[in-house]
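DM from R.C. (forwarded with permission)

"hey, sorry to bug you on a friday — could you get me a structure for this? deadline for the figure draft is monday and I only need the backbone to look sensible"
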Amino acid sequence: MLRSFHPLILLGVLAWAPVARAQNGPVEEGTFVIRIGDAEVGREHFVLQPGRRGGLPGSTLRAEAAYPAVRPRTRITGVVERTPGLVLAAAQFERAGADPLRIAAELARGRLTVRLAAPERESAQEFPGGPDLVVLDDSLFSLWTAVADLASESGTSLRYFKLQGGERGTLHAVRERVEGGGTRILLSGGISGIILLDPDGRLQSLQIPARQLEVLRTTEAQ
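My reply, with the result:
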């Protein structure tokens, strides 16, 4: 059951952490090419680093996407913090451009509170957190690393929450080995698709056929 909060408190609590390299060096770093059909529509750069705000243990994923990649009209940044047990602890999101938006999500006492601020609207809601909850977005695809981490050979049922639009649903993620040492993750339920990981467990591609979406890791300079 969602609970509403007074919108006037939002602008004071939406703290934003900029995308930057970790001082101690990233655990993982990469760039994705984002394609819809045959057209490249954007690029995303991400850094996964150890630790969380306040020196807490866990991990922090920082991502920045540009749409389109050349002369972008929209820039999107996101930060997701997880505990050592891979539980979602916090998330922040900002969209800059013609339709700006800020979102902050924080886990407290087992509940995830999500606060939104846009030029013409402010809102807040909360719902249960837990080890099966992941935050996703239709513009930042490095967030799918959380699904890859939680997928299992017997299949893992996950609840997801999309930052833009607030869509909530469930998906099932089944992990299977592929020839050459990589891993394929089959997605079904609320979102159907395929994630491919390299032999080191790094996300290499994401395909969501219903959207004609393909996200590919690239070695080119961003």
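R.C.: lifesaver. DSSP finds two helices and 15 strands in the chain.
me: no worries. Residues 34 and 215 are 5 Å apart (CA to CA).
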